[in-house]
Design goal:
The chain is mostly beta strands. Helices cover 11% and strands 33% of the residues. It has one domain: Thrombin, subunit H (Beta Barrel), CATH 2.40.10.10. It contains six helices and 21 strands. The protein is globular and about 45 Å long. The two termini are 17 Å apart. One of its GO terms (biological process) is proteolysis. One of its GO terms (molecular function) is serine-type peptidase activity. It holds the Pfam family Trypsin_2.
Length: 306
């Protein structure tokens, strides 16, 4: 990846810290690892959680303040970031210390100007979480001092209100790609957060994979994240079939709200494995959408987790 005849590949990765140099149509897969958190067996292609409406580390506490969605930092109120369509079908998750919920993290994001925001991430490796590009790099803010790499992200896996069953860790190393950082193109809105301790060994990781249209179009997708329209620090889940696919996007009629940016859009395979197929990022009047894990996205996530 990189320069070809002076044109930068929009999937070319960039990071905020110096580092040493480091087939379409086929399934590519990075498998999940449950870790040491007690697992919950899925119910077929969705999670085993009461109330879902189906259609085809001690005393450390998290802050309880109500904070804005990180997407607002880049997009303001000019677009729908994440939306509820009709009745809200999301279900609250109570057993957040059990896998797979333990692998999902509430994010407290501090921007360059000191403002604070919320988002969601999910572990893909002991030291690495996947998330949305706009969770780590802010574009187009009217507050000029806010644009660019965020200063830090407090990662709180398995958070349940103010309770932190696995503690919290602060990250200040991030990856995204040129297509997002240079102009904020929604087709490249994905990123990684690198944490200094291997907490993913404990909380577990989700897999991620590339699936051809004909296979992914038949799947039910799942999303769980930390929305800003519910009690701070609570995890909410929904599941439904894929609504539409594009080369760089996956669309679904799943209910979400601001704060769930960066959540995993995942399927559950016949072996009960949770496999990410997208990174949730945007809303719309009839469907919400995420950045699809295409072959270039898969390569970058695989490189970043190494």
């Amino acid at each position: 990846m990189g320069d070809v005849a002076g044109v930068v590949d929009p999937h070319a990765p960039i990071t905020n810290v110096p580092v040493e140099e480091e087939s379409e149509g086929a399934v590519q897969l990075s498998p999940p690892v449950p870790g040491r958190a007690e697992p919950i067996e899925p119910n077929g292609v969705v999670e085993s959680i009461a109330g879902l409406r189906r259609e085809a580390a001690g005393e450390l506490l998290a802050p309880d303040a109500v904070l804005p969605d990180i997407g607002v930092a880049s997009f303001g109120g000019e677009m729908q970031m994440e939306t509820v369509h009709g009745a809200d079908d999301r279900v609250a998750v109570s057993d957040t210390a059990r896998y797979p919920w333990s692998s999902m993290a509430s994010l407290l994001i501090t921007a360059r100007d000191g403002s604070q925001w919320i988002g969601t991430g999910w572990f893909i490796a002991p030291h690495v979480l996947a998330t949305a590009g706009h969770c780590v790099y802010i574009n187009n803010s009217p507050v000029a001092a806010r644009n660019g790499w965020v200063l830090s992200i407090q990662v709180m896996p398995g958070r349940n209100r103010t309770a932190l069953p696995f503690g919290a860790v602060t990250a200040n190393r991030f990856w995204t790609v040129h297509g997002w950082a240079n102009g904020g193109d929604q087709n490249y809105d994905y990123a990684a957060i690198v944490v200094p301790t291997p907490i993913g060994d404990t909380v577990g990781t989700l897999g991620f994979g590339v699936f051809p249209d004909e296979e992914l179009a038949e799947r039910v997708v799942n999303i769980a994240g930390y929305p800003g329209d519910k009690e701070p620090g609570t995890l909410w889940y929904d599941a439904r079939a894929v609504a539409a696919l594009a080369p760089s996007k996956v669309h679904y009629d799943l209910d979400t709200a601001g704060g769930q940016s960066g959540a995993a859009v995942y399927v559950i395979d016949e072996d009960g494995r949770r496999i990410g197929v997208g990174v949730h990022a945007y809303g719309g009047p009839t469907t919400n959408s995420g950045t699809r894990i295409s072959p270039p996205v898969f390569k970058n996530l695989s490189d970043w987790k190494a």
